[in-house]
Amino acid sequence: MPLAQVDTPALLIDLDAFERNLRRMADFAAKTGVRLRAHAKTHKSPVIAAKQVALGAVGVCCQKVSEAEVMVEGGIGDVLISTAAARAGATLDVLVEIDVGGRRCGAAQGEPAARIAELVAGSPHLRFAGLQAYHGSAQHVREAGERRALIARAVEQVEATRRALAAMGLEAGLVTGAGTGTYENEAASGVYNELQCGSYIFMDADYARNKRADGSLFADYEHALFVYTTIMSRPVPERAVVDAGHKALAVDSGMPVPWQLPGAQYQRPSDEHGVLDLSGATARLARGDKVLLVPGHCDPTVNLHDWYVGVRGLGTAGARVECVWPVAARGALF
Amino acid sequence: MPLAQVDTPALLIDLDAFERNLRRMADFAAKTGVRLRAHAKTHKSPVIAAKQVALGAVGVCCQKVSEAEVMVEGGIGDVLISTAAARAGATLDVLVEIDVGGRRCGAAQGEPAARIAELVAGSPHLRFAGLQAYHGSAQHVREAGERRALIARAVEQVEATRRALAAMGLEAGLVTGAGTGTYENEAASGVYNELQCGSYIFMDADYARNKRADGSLFADYEHALFVYTTIMSRPVPERAVVDAGHKALAVDSGMPVPWQLPGAQYQRPSDEHGVLDLSGATARLARGDKVLLVPGHCDPTVNLHDWYVGVRGLGTAGARVECVWPVAARGALF
To answer: Do A103 and B275 lie within an 8 Å CB cutoff?
Structure first.
């Protein structure tokens, strides 16, 4: 099907960019020798998880038991549930989460975390497998030096916890964490041996505002996810209204960015509408024209849609739909 | 099932409050003689639409064709699609939308709108039925006097359009619009003859910040919709972490409000977590305790969930699940 026949709003994957992103992170993991356990809360799709595993990821990470169920049903064998765990008659590997700076969940570093690990190790159906040490709030800090410093502090806390564990005769086999904003720091730490990056496959507008060490914008991964919209109203020259608002786009990390429309700004989303301010734009746009939006935040945007529309040749006149993949774990909240 | 056995996060309806809300708006419509066409984009449920119709609503309003399909399949006969319209071999009643102040879609008042009406009236399969004149941005203006003034200006624009229509020999049989924030003004205008209120059934936290003419908070309708959450971590005395973030709650109109927990504030939502700041709270809360959150904005919150859990006796020890209703039009984006 040609892209132009797709109903809007629709969640598009630029398959070319997406595949380059998959390959780039897989190459990084292979080069550094750190395992990649890609976070499935980004994509909620066993189809995508299988592609990550095929390129060398050890498995996926899930935030919810119901997401993990969808992954296992979809053929993904190695699933880590990073916040819930441990109800079953089998022996479960359990990670102890430590708060490395996010001030959310997790035990305090050192003794308190080690005492939980000791309880786990002493429980008949559980095995202490290591530490979950993800620093979520460091991911979107704009300056590379600040992100590096935050992860350096996280590493100190992991090391303090490992010392407390050693004093109890325990060892953290696995130290897992990291996201798309900081993973190079964790990989270089010598302490983390598994990365949980999720967003790298799609690259949202917010990650594109992060900076690299040389001050340039973070562009190691390409925008591969878009919300495809139609201009449904064109009431005055400086304003166009598109058919995607809060029910098609998450705006918690900033507004979506119109793709390849310099000067156009998406604003004032309501439930089913968004306004494009065209007062600074050069493009001529008419009612019925299509506009691609780069989501501000991929994960909750994906969770609004029932399927991905995979497009080959996006941005060319011959853009065609190649596949439709269900967002199989959409709404998996438990 | 007792409420306490419901998995979290879950979308709850307080059936007692919900039924009082339904009744209150139905009584208002009956008293004023203005038709109620309840907006189904709030609830996306034919079960709820049928309850509104049973109490006298003429039908429902939908924002998307795919929502309307779900309503018709669910047995709702009279559906108005307020922004899309008109592709079919049958004769369709068509409303012309005018921009009465929201600066979104809609033709300009007077001549421009009347010219569109003339085109509709002259088309073989269309019938000009009236004007769609909803002032969305007036709904959440806090002061009653300001809301009244905005609707007074909308009424002037409707009247100017009616004069332009009359000059072309056309008449707007229906003038439809209004939301939960302003409907008393439209009903009293003598110009609007149909109300499209949606949120009154659930009353979100943002509408509860509106004021009435006497300066008191708008409390004509009761909070009937909640996201039911569990405290999953309790790391320090002033902080609790609940299992509902951006994927269970829309925060575009402000944070959800913890229900009957004075001083507790919901903050820092991430995808699957929310932090309760308890530094000013009196309640003692432990890990595993349940917390009800009043959504900041009902419509996009509903759109995140697959079903409603209808609870009788919410707030009492005997709270029980009475029904589960699918959010049948969830994700109906087209």
So the answer is: yes
